[in-house]
Amino acid sequence: MADIATAGPLAGLKVVEMGQLIAGPFCAKTLADFGAEVVKIEPPGSGDPLRNWRLLQDGTSVWWQVQSRNKRSIAIDLRSADGQDLARKLIAEADVLIENFRPGTLEAWGMGWDTLQALNPGLVMLRISGYGQTGPYRDLPGFGVIGEAMGGLRHLTAEPGRVPVRVGVSIGDTLAALHGALGVLMALYHRKVHGGAGQVIDVALHEAVFNCMESLLPEYDAFGAVREAAGSALPGIAPSNAYKCSDGYVLIAGNGDSIFRRLMEAIGRPDLATAADLQSNAGRVARVGEIDAAIGAWTASRSIAEVMDLLGAAKVPAGKVYTARDIAEDPHYRARDMVLTQRTRDGHDIAVPGICPKLSATPGGLRTAAPRLGEDTDAVLREAGLTEQQIALLREKGVVA
């Protein structure tokens, strides 16, 4: 067996992943990247729908290759009594169960918390759903985009007066997944330190989004202020915006007091750099239109590369708006191993995101490619104590595949 530095800090942690698509599986992927042994339960025949989302290579989504790396796949019909028995058998030996079904689904299958805790008192159960396990909305269907809307994010992602737009990725699901991973680790720590008992972690998609909304609520409560969409600007913080260059856009964050002065000197506006009322953020916010216009006039006649070079020399935070091509070709991404090559089960070498965060002594890693549907069914069932005859009978009945 590999040592802990190679295997990852979560080596030996047994995780059963139920559910599909994004939030639950992303959480499990995060744990798997750092060494957890994740067994993913999928429905026979179709598997996780993510296998067929977006762009396919040899019939399989390349997104799947990222989301399910370092996992094993077992195909079980959870709607059958035999399949539910198998799932309970696996969960009884697990440290963590991750599920993102609609509330009540597991209870209907005989896998509610009370049942599972009786089987496995140390179990940590993560439940991700649209609205949480309690409350008047618990039974409503909820996807990440709905969580983004209810959490307050979607109202802000627009140009003023225009239709709210999505971030471009499934950010609501991902935020819920990361909150879930944090909850799992806290529950495991509590189990270790305080007597071995497990617990339930209840993550609602909209709550994970809302938790990241900064001063949105207290500003409303204290001042009646409803924060509105502001495009690429950061309301109340100046200057921080996107500015048009001759060949695209750059983001410039000149909102620190000394940074602002360096920025104004760099763009040839010493008058603004030394203006008494612009030495603090409050004064700059009052004149943000004038400041943005001055910066925009300077960037408009320059290329992105020129702007980046000049502001880099002035030690002003600035960034090009990256595309996928920019990321793939960027030397900094490569130097920090954030673009890695992974070989799929079909023999394709594909670039995938690296491991984040980076641990110095026990880093995560890519150990295995994303599995084919049910690829590990027999091996996992053997490890659970089933005989070859029992496995063959279950396959014959269509319970496993």
Automatic annotation (TrEMBL):
<dbReference type="Pfam" id="PF02515">
    <property type="entry name" value="CoA_transf_3"/>
</dbReference>
<dbReference type="InterPro" id="IPR050483">
    <property type="entry name" value="CoA-transferase_III_domain"/>
</dbReference>
<dbReference type="InterPro" id="IPR023606">
    <property type="entry name" value="CoA-Trfase_III_dom_1_sf"/>
</dbReference>
<dbReference type="InterPro" id="IPR003673">
    <property type="entry name" value="CoA-Trfase_fam_III"/>
</dbReference>
<keyword id="KW-0808">Transferase</keyword>
<protein>
    <submittedName>
        <fullName>CoA transferase</fullName>
    </submittedName>
</protein>
<dbReference type="InterPro" id="IPR044855">
    <property type="entry name" value="CoA-Trfase_III_dom3_sf"/>
</dbReference>
<dbReference type="GO" id="GO:0008410">
    <property type="term" value="F:CoA-transferase activity"/>
</dbReference>
